[in-house]
Amino acid sequence: MSLRIGNIAPNFKIETTQGTIDFHDWAKGSWTFFFSHPADYTPVCTTEMGRTAQLAPEFEKRNVKPLGLSTDTVEEHLGWIKDVNETQNTVLEFPIVADKDKKVAELYDMIHPDEDDTAAVRSVFIIDPSMKIRLTMTYPMAVGRNFAEILRVIDALQTTDKQEVACPADWQVGHPVIIRPSVSDDDAKNKFPQGWKTLRPYLRLTNLK
Length: 209
What we know:
By secondary structure, the chain is of the alpha+beta class. It is 32% helix and 24% strand. It has 2 domains: 13-146, 3-Layer(aba) Sandwich (Glutaredoxin); 163-206, Antioxidant, Horf6, Chain A, domain 2 (2-Layer Sandwich). It contains 7 helices and 11 strands. It has a 5-stranded mixed sheet. The chain has a 4-stranded antiparallel sheet with strand order 8-9-11-10, covered by helices on one side. Strands 1-2 form a two-stranded antiparallel ribbon. The termini are far apart.
């Protein structure tokens, strides 16, 4: 099953390090950073889980719940969390799915047989409060994720949901945004009273208030 942007994220009920969850009920009303890793007690994954834990305040202020997954058991997860906390100087508090039967990994197409036929690759799903998939990224097993980019894209998605703008290349919070071409100049006068700079009729930059 190939999941695409705009699809409703498939629901599942499964054991985690914080008990059994129904995914849609657990995520209701929040954004979700749902990410898989190949295996517990592996070096890159340890740094990624630690970084997610370190960024807990950043996720919280964006109303984002992190949810990890690998095809290991709850018991293995709980033992590994101790290593994550000690080596990454953090306290990991978000749940990790125990997908030992690979049901969720297969549901979300996280198993890429040409990379590994049993372990999940480094998949990322950003899911909004209506349970729509808004972004997907997949990293190879040997390359850790860029968490600055994960936070950046969540900021961009939340910004473009609030106003009729788009975010240019390398956009960061506070940088100019693009007024969407679907917004006429007349409408833009009301929606963006702060004004804008026209580089081309289809490329108008403005600073959000």
